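#lab-general

N.A. 3:47 PM
ok so I finally got the sequence cleaned up, no stray characters, all 473 residues accounted for. can someone with queue access submit it? mine expired

B.Y. 3:52 PM
send it over

N.A. 3:53 PM
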Amino acid sequence: MPITHPPTVIQGGMGVAVSSWRLAREVSQCGELGVVSGTALDGVLARVLQDGDPGGHRRRALAHFPSQAMVQRVMDTYFLEGGRPPGKPYRPHPTLTISPRRAAIELSVLGNFTEVWLAKEGHDGVVGINMLEKIQTANLSAILGAMLADVDYVIMGAGVPREIPRLLTEFASARTGHLTIDVVNATTTHRAALNPRTVLGDDLPPLRRPNFLAIVTLHVLADYLNRDPEIRPDGFIVEGPRAGGHSSPPRGKVELDEAGDPIYGPRDDADLAKIARVGLPFWLAGGYATPEKVAEARASGAAGVQIGTLFALADESGLTPELRSQLMSELEADELSVRNDPRASPTGFPFKVAQLADTLSEDEVYEERERICDLGYLRVPVERPDKSITYRCPSEPIAPYLRKGGSIEETVGRKCLCNALMANIGLGQLRPSGYQEPPAVTLGQDLEGARELSRLHPGGWTARQAVDWLLPA
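B.Y. 4:20 PM
back already:
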């Protein structure tokens, strides 16, 4: 559908609930596009409920979900009045597979519903949800949950999201949605399916199709997605290599600089004139976090910009106060450094990691951690010789990874981002030995805007102050 009132600022969808409902709600109330992160929201809901749902926010959102029977099943499984006793680990929750259990689907639907519902509560601004194409097995249930909360935009990167436009249309028509799942060693096509009527039955309300924005790095992908109405998005976010989180590897042979980061060149820059000729609205991301860069982006034909780092550091972000304070102290001392680590992410994509004490950015912290894969969001499915499916992740224990056909080279330097990103927001797992999962913070490598804003607001800023600074009257 045509985007009639495009926002100037899209707040980035960062980490696991770093782009929290509080942050998205505040940006939306400023008249821009507030975005919640759609990664691992099933786990977030399960763990917040086990912590007693401080403030009652999740329960308030769940009271508005159309199937209270589904809500009761999840509450009975995870909610602990007053929270976990000291020293008690979080209860595991089911992982999402190509053919997930109903309990996994319901937790995912409710996790995404609550985050979007809370972001939209009490105002008429627009709210989006950001998802990763790489986490394919989670996307059907996550998108359905977001649409049940009347999400306005779905945003997706980290892959080629060619099937999402049709999926949104199918769900809005209460029909079965399908996604093709990439399976290593596949001898046949593997498809995941989800029918909203099967999930909710008579409780299914009418669903509105949200706008879809595809994150691209080059005009070639924008051209490809635009050629066919079946896969055409409603707009593009054109992300440069300095943007936070995952980034595409450089084109051609990968070379590393002195810090071990991939070196990007002119071939990795999008041709904005060709992007503009596609004829769909687009936003620029990665190095556009100042008022001057916003104006520059709009002068190039962009509708605006997507910005993450300024909002990750804002008061309303989901980062723990301790991590945000540590980041702000290093930023104000001009000592904050962000690496684009080519090995950290199990996905194989380079991943931006802030260099902070007592986080997985430190070699000794990484080496001390036992290799455990118990959340599984970044696992990939693998077809066995007998045609059955297993799942593997290069950050899991090495022996089982090798048994599943992986190579030892793929495991070197891989970090368990699933557990680390949960720790970023205060939901890190406590192991039976007493070991607490450490965090790993991702930010963009362009810190110019953050430094300028810190001089105006020493000690921190709100999302509204960031928006007001980016868009002066």
